[in-house]
Write a structure and sequence with these properties.
One of its GO terms (molecular function) is zinc ion binding. This protein is mainly alpha-helical. 63% of the residues lie in helices and 7% in strands. The protein has 2 domains: 77 residues; 51 residues. The chain has a two-stranded antiparallel sheet with strand order 1-2. It has a two-stranded antiparallel sheet with strand order 3-4. A hairpin with a 5-residue loop joins strand 3 and strand 4. The chain is rod-shaped.
Length: 165
């Protein structure tokens, strides 16, 4: 019986030692898990802070985009208004000039000593040219050199070449 008691006591001691080892291992595991939990909480706080910052920046960017879009729309409205003003002004000027005819030079100039366009006197330094189209006498300023064909007055040149005016 004492041997049996000694064997039971030894078995109980061995079982207690094993339980202490398991308890120690479980405590280490709990400590490790608590450390992981603490790191996870820190990560969560960091990510939550980063998310809040990103959301705040996105809202600021959206507000800036909205303000810029409003400025651009206002600029477009202003430009459209200015375009309408210019079109009205152009139409008004066109209506004013619609009835005005450009004076044609006569085939026989009234005064051979004056330019048919600007009425300037032909003198020693002011050369006179014959327009090759209407044959009027014009000065250098009121004529255009058309190459081999000679010179012609500005009015005839503009009538023959409307795209250059």
């Amino acid at each position: 019986l004492p041997q049996r008691l000694a064997a039971l006591a030894a078995a109980a001691r061995e079982e207690a030692r094993q339980c202490q080892q398991q308890l120690q291992a479980q405590r280490q595991e709990v400590a490790r898990l608590q450390e992981q939990l603490s790191r996870a909480r820190q990560d969560r706080e960091r990510w939550a802070s980063a998310l809040q910052r990103a959301q705040r920046e996105a809202l600021e960017r959206e507000a800036m985009r909205g303000a810029e879009q409003a400025r651009q729309q206002e600029l477009i409205r202003d430009m459209k208004g200015r375009l309408l003003e210019l079109l009205r002004e152009k139409d008004a000027l066109w209506q004013k000039t619609e009835g005005i005819d450009t004076p044609r030079s006569s085939s026989a100039p009234r005064d051979a000593g004056l330019c048919a366009r600007c009425r300037k006197d032909f003198r020693l330094l002011s050369r006179r040219y014959n327009c090759r189209l209407c044959h009027s006498k014009v000065c250098h300023t009121c004529s255009v050199d058309v190459g081999k064909q000679g010179r012609c007055c500005l009015l005839c040149y503009q009538q023959r070449h409307p795209q250059t005016t």
